[in-house]
Amino acid sequence: MDSNSEVLDAARAALPGWELLVERYSRLVWSVPRSFRLSYADAADVYQCTWLCLAEHLTRIRQPERLGAWLIRTATRQSIAVVRARGREVPLDRWEPESSLPAPEEVAVTNDRQRRLWTALMTLNERCQRLLCIAAHSPDLSYAQVAEALGMKLGNVGSTRSRCLAQLRRKLEGQL
């Protein structure tokens, strides 16, 4: 079974298609929560939730060729939900001396740098946003996997990435 359509049909029929889907997209799905720097346990939860969502929506997938993008989008949404939930938690390690905390000015500079980067990134088109996020957080993915996940031609990944990085660089320089 080569095409996503065949694999999805087999998975819907409870044939070995599900195992093929997991084998084919496991690294891609796993890379998304790890790109959010979630703990291993949180990333594993996101990974499982993503596959559960696919199982629940298996009969509603209308564009099998876009399955990689669907999985990335679902894992991203799950990861963002975890990040938001964890952002409300205030970890407190009573054994760590307070001197190990960064100085307020370091926090301010780091926050400002991150805000400017994300602001500039969000002004790019969706394709560039997704491509740069995958490139930054999942460098071990091959161009073929990135092309499939984003619905691009394999030969366009490198040049599109270069153009997107150049646009991002110009936008960041314009913020200074």
TrEMBL record:
It holds the Pfam family Sigma70_r2. Residues 21-88 form the RNA polymerase sigma-70 region domain. Keywords: DNA-binding, Sigma factor, Transcription, Transcription regulation. NCBIfam families: sigma70-ECF. Belongs to the sigma-70 factor family. ECF subfamily. PANTHER family: RNA POLYMERASE ECF-TYPE SIGMA FACTO (PTHR43133), RNA POLYMERASE SIGMA FACTOR HI_1459-RELATED (PTHR43133:SF8). This is RNA polymerase sigma factor. The lineage of its organism: Bacteria, Bacillati, Actinomycetota, Actinomycetes, Pseudonocardiales.
